[in-house]
TrEMBL record, chain A:
Listed name of the protein: Stage V sporulation protein AC
UniProt KW Secreted keyword: no
Source organism: Caldicellulosiruptor owensensis
Alphabetical keyword list: Membrane, Transmembrane, Transmembrane helix
Pfam families in alphabetical order: SpoVAC_SpoVAEB
Annotated TM spans: 29-48, 60-79, 85-102, 122-146
Transmembrane helix among keywords: yes
Taxonomic superkingdom: Bacteria
Amino acid sequence: MNIKDKKVCEYLALVKANEPKTNSFKNCILAFLIGGAICDVGQAFLNLYSSFFPKDEAQVLTSITMIFLGAFLTGVGVYDKIGAFAGAGSIVPITGFANSIVSPAIEYKKEGFVFGVGSKMFLIAGPVLVYGISTSILVGLLYYLVKVFPGI
Amino acid sequence: MKVRLKGTMKLGRSTYRFKSNVAISDCFTVVGKKEGQGPLSIYFDMVIEDEYAGQKSWELAEGKLLNIAITKLVQRAGEKPDNIDLILSGDLLNQLSSSHFAARDLDIPFIGIYGACSTFALSVGLASLFVDSGFAKNVIAATSSHFCSAEKQFRYPLELGTQRPPTSQWTVTGAAAFLIKQEDSSQSPKITHFTVGRILDFGIKDPNNMGAAMAPAAFDTIMRHFSDTKRSFDYYDMIITGDLGYVGRKLLDELFKKEGIRFSSELFDCGILMFDPETQNTGAGASGCAASACVFGGYLYKLLRERTFEKILIVPTGALMSQSTALLGESIPVIAHALAIEIV
C-alpha cells in the first residue's frame, strides 16, 4: 500500500468515526406508524366500496383513490413534508409511487410536455417499473411451469 | 510608509501576493426567504421572498438574483456599466446557465468560471490578478446558487417525499457581487494573497456528504498558504472555511489535531453561520456558491469595514461532482482556494 492509499484509508476511518448517526429506531417507528395510517385510510375506502361493489371492483377503486390522494397531496406540496417525516412509511404504499411520478412531472413541466413531462415523469419510477414488470414476468413464468408440470 | 510596487509576486508553489492596493471596494448580496430568516438576516442587502424571483424557472430565478446583485452593485458604487472592464462569475448549474443568463443583458466583457462552492474565492482571486496587473481597473467578481435549481440538477425533484440524511447540506439561495479595484484609502479591505488550491480526492463517494469530502482540501490549502507566505498560525484574526458544515468542520479540526497544529483564533465556517439548524431544519449546514459569498459579502465584509477584524483568511471549498460522476461510482474530487483579506 503506497502512502496515498494509506492516507485515504486513514481519512475514511476518521470520517466514519465522526459521522452523525441516523436514528434508525426512531425512523422505523415513524415509518411503521405513518405507513400503517396510510394503509388504514386505504382499508377504510375498501370497506366503504365493498358495501356497494363486488370485491375485485372495490379493490381497483381503492387503488385508484389512493393514487389520486398521493398525486393530489404531491401537487399541493404536502406529500414531500410527510415523506421527510415518515421515510419508507410514505414511500412503500401506492401513494409513494404516485408521488414519485407526479413530483418529476411538476419539476420538468417547464421543459415542455413532450421532453419535460413526458420523458422525465418516469425518472424515479422508471427503474421500479422496469424491474417490477420484469420480475412479475419471471414469477409468472415459474407459476405457469409449476402448474403445467405439478411433478417438479 | 512602505512603498508599494505594482505587480503580482508569486510566493512558494501556489500563492500570489498582490503588491498594489487591490481592494474589495463594495459588494452587494441578495438572498432568498429562508436565508433572510436565518441568524444573519439583518446583514444582507436584499431579501427576495419569491423563490421564482418573478421568473418562470429555477434557472432563470437564479440568474435574476445574480443580475440584481451585479446591477445594484454597479449602481451603488456610482459606476457606469461602461466603466466595468470585466465580470468573472460562476455558479453550480450545468454550463454556468445562471451566470450566463445574468450577464446576457449587461453588455460587459465576461469570463465564466467553475469551482463549485469555491467559486467565490476563485472569482475574487482572479479578479485581483487582473486588477493588480493593471490590465483592468474595475472588475466584478460574482457568484450565485439556488436551492431549487441545485436540488433539481443534483438530487431529486422538490416534491419527492424523501428523507435527507443527517450529513446532507442545504444549498443557499442567493447571489453576491464584489467590485474589485485599486484603492489607496485604508477604508476598504484589501486582498493581499490568493492561494490557488489543488484537486484532491480522499475517496468519499457519497454526494450527500460533501463536508467530509471537502475537509481535506481546506486543510491542504490552509497549510500551503502558511508554508508559502511563511506567516505564523497566529497571524490571522479569523480563519473561515466555505461550506464544510458541521460534519466537515469537525473533520477539519481532527486533521489539524492530528498534525498538532493550534490556532489562536477559532476556526469558523460560512456553512455553519448561515442557518440555525434547530429551527430551520438545514441538516449539516449550508452549502452552495452563495454560502461563502453571501456570508462574506453580507456579514464579514461589514465586520472588516468596522474593523472588528483586521486580518482574515477565507477558504471556500468546492466538491466537484456531477450527477453522472456519482452514478459512475467515482469518488468526489475537491478543491479549496484561499484569500487573505486585510485592512492595510
